[in-house]
Structures are given as structure tokens and as C-alpha cells.
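Sequence in, structure out.
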Amino acid sequence: MNSSFKENTKTVLICIIVLFGSAFAIMSFNEDVGVGDLFQKIYKLVEGREHTGFGILELTYGIGIAIGITVFFNCFNKKKKNSEPTPIELKMQQYDDDVQTYLQSKKKS
């Protein structure tokens, strides 16, 4: 098997795992804070009746989360507006520093 194919397969599998993990984390958070109950109360106040199914609040909330994550992590902007690193860049740098520190401590022992 081609090593490039193996690497691409690993990357795709990791992306799928991260996608489902992130979705699970967001759903767990929303369940903990009761977003569904809040939406039901808003529908009851505005429409005067119970709302069942998928509505405009759920749609706009989902779109808002996607846009918020994209903007927060500066995913699709090729040119930077400022020189400040994004949160993901900071975490990656911290991870690299931790790896280097670990490797240096292993060499000394």
C-alpha cells in the first residue's frame, strides 16, 4: 500500500473522529444548559402554542455556531487582518513546546 494513501486515510479518519467528538461536545453542552427548553419557551411566548419539530430558532442557532467557530478559529481567511495568532495556533505552539521539552528531558535521562 502506498504510504501517501495510508497518511491520507489516517487524516480522514482523524477528521471524522474529531468532527463527531466536537458535535457530541456541543450537543452535550446544549443539553446541559437546556437550549431546547429555552427554544420551546420562546416558541410558546411568540406563537402561543407548543412547537414540535425543527424550526427557525434551531436553524439560525446552528448556522450561528458554525459561523462563530469559523470566525473564532479564522479558518478560511487566507490573509490575516492582524499579526495576532489564532487560538488554534496558540495551542499548536504550546503543544510543540511541550513536545520539545519532553524530548529534551528524555535525552538528559
